[in-house]
Protein backbone atom coordinates (compact mmCIF):
# COMPACT_ATOMS: atom_id res chain seq x y z
CA UNK A 1 0.00 0.00 0.00
CA UNK A 2 1.19 3.51 -0.75
CA UNK A 3 1.96 5.95 2.04
CA UNK A 4 -0.76 8.54 1.65
CA UNK A 5 -3.28 10.44 3.79
CA UNK A 6 -5.03 7.29 5.02
CA UNK A 7 -8.76 6.67 5.17
CA UNK A 8 -11.40 9.14 6.31
CA UNK A 9 -12.41 6.69 9.04
CA UNK A 10 -8.96 7.22 10.61
CA UNK A 11 -9.68 10.91 11.35
CA UNK A 12 -9.66 11.31 15.14
CA UNK A 13 -9.29 7.55 15.66
CA UNK A 14 -6.18 7.74 17.87
CA UNK A 15 -7.85 10.15 20.29
CA UNK A 16 -11.06 8.08 20.32
CA UNK A 17 -9.15 4.87 21.08
CA UNK A 18 -7.31 6.50 23.98
CA UNK A 19 -10.60 7.67 25.50
CA UNK A 20 -12.66 4.51 24.94
CA UNK A 21 -10.52 1.38 24.46
CA UNK A 22 -10.14 -0.88 27.53
CA UNK A 23 -12.61 1.14 29.63
CA UNK A 24 -14.72 -1.85 30.63
CA UNK A 25 -17.89 -2.21 32.70
CA UNK A 26 -18.14 -6.00 32.52
CA UNK A 27 -16.06 -9.14 33.02
CA UNK A 28 -14.37 -10.68 29.99
CA UNK A 29 -12.21 -13.76 29.58
CA UNK A 30 -10.61 -14.82 26.30
CA UNK A 31 -8.14 -17.50 25.21
CA UNK A 32 -6.23 -17.38 21.91
CA UNK A 33 -4.32 -20.19 20.23
CA UNK A 34 -2.25 -20.27 17.04
CA UNK A 35 -1.42 -23.18 14.76
CA UNK A 36 1.56 -23.67 12.46
CA UNK A 37 -0.76 -23.48 9.45
CA UNK A 38 -1.55 -19.83 10.25
CA UNK A 39 -4.95 -20.30 11.91
CA UNK A 40 -5.70 -18.18 14.99
CA UNK A 41 -8.56 -19.27 17.26
CA UNK A 42 -10.02 -17.06 20.02
CA UNK A 43 -12.72 -18.01 22.52
CA UNK A 44 -14.30 -15.21 24.56
CA UNK A 45 -16.82 -15.07 27.41
CA UNK A 46 -18.39 -11.84 28.67
CA UNK A 47 -20.41 -11.51 31.87
CA UNK A 48 -22.45 -8.32 32.21
CA UNK A 49 -24.91 -7.99 35.04
CA UNK A 50 -26.53 -11.37 35.52
CA UNK A 51 -26.10 -12.44 31.90
CA UNK A 52 -23.25 -14.19 30.14
CA UNK A 53 -22.47 -14.36 26.45
CA UNK A 54 -19.59 -15.57 24.40
CA UNK A 55 -18.23 -16.13 20.94
CA UNK A 56 -15.63 -18.09 19.04
CA UNK A 57 -13.53 -16.39 16.39
CA UNK A 58 -11.13 -17.90 13.89
CA UNK A 59 -8.72 -16.10 11.58
CA UNK A 60 -6.70 -17.47 8.70
CA UNK A 61 -4.19 -15.61 6.54
CA UNK A 62 -2.60 -16.81 3.33
CA UNK A 63 -0.50 -14.44 1.22
CA UNK A 64 -2.76 -11.45 0.44
CA UNK A 65 -6.00 -13.12 1.62
CA UNK A 66 -7.39 -13.23 5.15
CA UNK A 67 -10.58 -14.81 6.48
CA UNK A 68 -12.27 -14.02 9.79
CA UNK A 69 -15.19 -16.06 11.13
CA UNK A 70 -17.07 -15.34 14.37
CA UNK A 71 -19.87 -17.38 15.95
CA UNK A 72 -21.70 -16.16 19.07
CA UNK A 73 -23.87 -17.96 21.62
CA UNK A 74 -27.04 -17.07 19.67
CA UNK A 75 -25.71 -18.87 16.57
CA UNK A 76 -25.09 -15.66 14.65
CA UNK A 77 -22.29 -16.16 12.16
CA UNK A 78 -20.20 -13.30 10.79
CA UNK A 79 -17.59 -13.87 8.09
CA UNK A 80 -15.18 -11.31 6.66
CA UNK A 81 -13.01 -11.91 3.60
CA UNK A 82 -10.20 -9.44 2.89
CA UNK A 83 -8.17 -9.50 -0.32
CA UNK A 84 -5.32 -7.08 -0.89
CA UNK A 85 -3.93 -5.94 -4.22
CA UNK A 86 -6.64 -7.22 -6.57
CA UNK A 87 -5.94 -3.85 -8.10
CA UNK A 88 -2.54 -2.36 -7.13
CA UNK A 89 -2.75 -0.30 -3.91
CA UNK A 90 -6.23 -1.58 -3.11
CA UNK A 91 -8.09 -3.72 -0.60
CA UNK A 92 -11.43 -5.49 -1.06
CA UNK A 93 -13.49 -6.53 1.96
CA UNK A 94 -16.63 -8.68 1.91
CA UNK A 95 -18.70 -9.10 5.08
CA UNK A 96 -21.40 -11.77 5.28
CA UNK A 97 -23.74 -12.44 8.20
CA UNK A 98 -26.17 -15.26 8.93
CA UNK A 99 -29.08 -15.43 9.57
CA UNK A 100 -29.22 -11.64 9.11
CA UNK A 101 -27.75 -11.93 5.62
CA UNK A 102 -29.20 -8.58 4.49
CA UNK A 103 -26.67 -6.77 6.69
CA UNK A 104 -23.78 -8.00 4.53
CA UNK A 105 -21.52 -5.48 2.82
CA UNK A 106 -18.94 -5.28 0.04
CA UNK A 107 -16.27 -2.60 0.39
CA UNK A 108 -13.46 -1.44 -1.87
CA UNK A 109 -10.55 0.68 -0.64
CA UNK A 110 -8.01 2.41 -2.86
CA UNK A 111 -4.84 4.11 -1.62
CA UNK A 112 -2.75 6.68 -3.48
CA UNK A 113 0.18 8.88 -2.52
CA UNK A 114 -2.11 11.92 -2.20
CA UNK A 115 -5.57 10.38 -1.92
CA UNK A 116 -7.64 7.47 -0.66
CA UNK A 117 -11.10 6.27 -1.64
CA UNK A 118 -13.60 3.86 -0.13
CA UNK A 119 -16.84 2.65 -1.67
CA UNK A 120 -19.21 0.28 0.13
CA UNK A 121 -22.51 -1.26 -0.94
CA UNK A 122 -24.97 -3.32 1.10
CA UNK A 123 -25.77 -6.83 -0.06
CA UNK A 124 -29.57 -6.63 -0.13
CA UNK A 125 -32.41 -5.73 -2.50
CA UNK A 126 -32.22 -2.00 -1.72
CA UNK A 127 -28.53 -1.57 -1.00
CA UNK A 128 -27.30 1.59 0.74
CA UNK A 129 -24.22 3.16 -0.80
CA UNK A 130 -21.39 4.72 1.23
CA UNK A 131 -18.55 6.71 -0.28
CA UNK A 132 -15.62 8.50 1.34
CA UNK A 133 -12.61 10.32 -0.09
CA UNK A 134 -9.48 11.77 1.49
CA UNK A 135 -7.05 14.19 -0.14
CA UNK A 136 -3.66 15.31 1.16
CA UNK A 137 -0.54 13.83 2.68
CA UNK A 138 0.30 11.82 5.83
CA UNK A 139 0.81 15.22 7.53
CA UNK A 140 -2.26 17.15 6.36
CA UNK A 141 -5.50 15.78 4.92
CA UNK A 142 -9.07 16.78 4.07
CA UNK A 143 -11.85 14.25 3.81
CA UNK A 144 -15.57 13.73 3.33
CA UNK A 145 -18.06 10.90 3.61
CA UNK A 146 -21.60 10.43 2.29
CA UNK A 147 -24.28 7.78 2.48
CA UNK A 148 -27.00 7.32 -0.16
CA UNK A 149 -30.21 5.34 0.27
CA UNK A 150 -31.30 3.79 -3.00
CA UNK A 151 -34.88 3.20 -1.81
CA UNK A 152 -35.68 6.88 -1.23
CA UNK A 153 -32.97 8.42 -3.39
CA UNK A 154 -31.81 10.62 -0.52
CA UNK A 155 -28.53 11.29 1.26
CA UNK A 156 -28.85 9.72 4.70
CA UNK A 157 -25.53 11.08 6.00
CA UNK A 158 -22.70 13.39 5.08
CA UNK A 159 -19.59 14.20 7.06
CA UNK A 160 -16.48 16.30 6.45
CA UNK A 161 -13.23 16.64 8.35
CA UNK A 162 -9.65 17.81 8.50
CA UNK A 163 -6.65 16.28 10.26
CA UNK A 164 -3.09 17.41 10.94
CA UNK A 165 -0.49 14.87 12.01
CA UNK A 166 2.99 15.56 13.34
CA UNK A 167 5.58 13.23 14.93
CA UNK A 168 4.53 14.31 18.44
CA UNK A 169 0.87 15.27 17.96
CA UNK A 170 -2.33 14.81 15.97
CA UNK A 171 -5.37 17.08 15.68
CA UNK A 172 -8.70 16.48 13.93
CA UNK A 173 -11.95 18.37 13.38
CA UNK A 174 -15.03 16.52 12.10
CA UNK A 175 -18.41 18.00 11.13
CA UNK A 176 -20.96 15.21 11.19
CA UNK A 177 -24.63 14.26 11.62
CA UNK A 178 -25.54 16.30 8.53
CA UNK A 179 -23.84 19.35 10.03
CA UNK A 180 -25.52 19.03 13.43
CA UNK A 181 -22.43 17.89 15.34
CA UNK A 182 -18.86 19.15 15.39
CA UNK A 183 -16.07 17.29 17.16
CA UNK A 184 -12.47 18.37 17.70
CA UNK A 185 -9.76 16.16 19.18
CA UNK A 186 -6.08 16.58 19.98
CA UNK A 187 -3.46 14.06 21.07
CA UNK A 188 0.06 14.94 22.17
CA UNK A 189 3.01 12.70 23.02
CA UNK A 190 4.93 14.12 25.99
CA UNK A 191 8.22 12.29 25.36
CA UNK A 192 10.19 10.92 22.43
CA UNK A 193 9.50 7.27 23.36
CA UNK A 194 5.75 8.04 23.46
CA UNK A 195 5.37 6.59 26.94
CA UNK A 196 3.23 9.53 28.09
CA UNK A 197 0.25 10.72 26.06
CA UNK A 198 -2.26 13.50 26.71
CA UNK A 199 -5.57 13.68 24.84
CA UNK A 200 -8.54 16.02 24.70
CA UNK A 201 -11.85 15.87 22.82
CA UNK A 202 -14.71 18.35 22.64
CA UNK A 203 -18.00 17.93 20.79
CA UNK A 204 -21.07 20.11 20.34
CA UNK A 205 -24.53 19.15 19.14
CA UNK A 206 -26.13 22.27 17.68
CA UNK A 207 -29.75 21.08 17.79
CA UNK A 208 -29.65 20.58 21.57
CA UNK A 209 -26.85 23.02 22.49
CA UNK A 210 -25.17 20.12 24.27
CA UNK A 211 -21.40 20.20 24.83
CA UNK A 212 -19.19 17.32 25.92
CA UNK A 213 -15.55 17.83 26.85
CA UNK A 214 -13.24 14.96 27.77
CA UNK A 215 -9.58 14.98 28.78
CA UNK A 216 -7.40 11.98 29.44
CA UNK A 217 -4.01 10.47 29.24
CA UNK A 218 -1.93 7.33 29.19
CA UNK A 219 1.37 6.50 30.84
CA UNK A 220 3.59 3.45 30.36
CA UNK A 221 5.11 2.64 33.74
CA UNK A 222 7.42 0.06 32.21
CA UNK A 223 7.42 -2.25 29.21
CA UNK A 224 4.67 -4.38 30.77
CA UNK A 225 2.39 -2.04 32.73
CA UNK A 226 0.39 1.01 31.66
CA UNK A 227 -2.29 3.22 33.20
CA UNK A 228 -4.97 5.42 31.62
CA UNK A 229 -7.39 7.98 33.00
CA UNK A 230 -10.15 10.19 31.61
CA UNK A 231 -12.59 12.78 32.93
CA UNK A 232 -15.44 14.60 31.18
CA UNK A 233 -17.46 17.71 32.01
CA UNK A 234 -20.34 15.54 33.25
CA UNK A 235 -18.15 14.32 36.11
CA UNK A 236 -17.50 10.81 34.80
CA UNK A 237 -14.05 9.64 35.87
CA UNK A 238 -12.53 6.48 34.45
CA UNK A 239 -9.27 4.64 35.08
CA UNK A 240 -7.56 1.61 33.53
CA UNK A 241 -4.63 -0.49 34.72
CA UNK A 242 -3.23 -2.98 32.21
CA UNK A 243 -0.41 -5.45 32.76
CA UNK A 244 1.20 -7.87 30.33
CA UNK A 245 1.79 -11.35 31.69
CA UNK A 246 3.92 -14.15 30.30
CA UNK A 247 3.44 -14.82 26.60
CA UNK A 248 1.83 -11.44 25.82
CA UNK A 249 -1.22 -12.30 27.87
CA UNK A 250 -3.01 -9.23 29.26
CA UNK A 251 -4.94 -8.51 32.43
CA UNK A 252 -7.00 -5.30 32.43
CA UNK A 253 -8.68 -3.66 35.42
CA UNK A 254 -11.08 -0.78 34.82
CA UNK A 255 -13.20 1.44 37.03
CA UNK A 256 -15.64 4.29 36.41
CA UNK A 257 -17.65 6.48 38.77
CA UNK A 258 -19.54 9.77 38.84
CA UNK A 259 -17.77 12.49 40.79
CA UNK A 260 -21.03 14.47 41.00
CA UNK A 261 -22.90 11.53 42.55
CA UNK A 262 -20.49 9.81 44.91
CA UNK A 263 -23.35 7.88 46.52
CA UNK A 264 -23.67 5.78 43.37
CA UNK A 265 -21.80 2.49 43.22
CA UNK A 266 -18.73 2.66 40.95
CA UNK A 267 -18.62 0.32 37.98
CA UNK A 268 -15.77 -2.14 37.64
CA UNK A 269 -14.56 -4.19 34.71
CA UNK A 270 -12.03 -7.01 34.43
CA UNK A 271 -10.57 -8.61 31.31
CA UNK A 272 -8.11 -11.46 31.02
CA UNK A 273 -6.70 -12.36 27.59
CA UNK A 274 -4.49 -15.45 27.49
CA UNK A 275 -2.17 -15.86 24.52
CA UNK A 276 0.57 -18.46 23.94
Automatic annotation (TrEMBL):
It is found in: Membrane. It comes from the Eukaryota. Pfam families: Porin_3. GO terms for cellular component: mitochondrial outer membrane; pore complex. InterPro entries: Porin_dom_sf, Porin_Euk, Porin_Euk/Tom40. Keywords: Ion transport, Membrane, Porin, Transmembrane, Transmembrane beta strand, Transport. Its main location: membrane. One of its GO terms (molecular function) is porin activity. Forms a channel through the cell membrane that allows diffusion of small hydrophilic molecules. The channel adopts an open conformation at low or zero membrane potential and a closed conformation at potentials above 30-40 mV. The open state has a weak anion selectivity whereas the closed state is cation-selective. Belongs to the eukaryotic mitochondrial porin (TC 1.B.8.1) family. This is Voltage-dependent anion-selective channel protein. It comes from Olea europaea subsp. europaea.
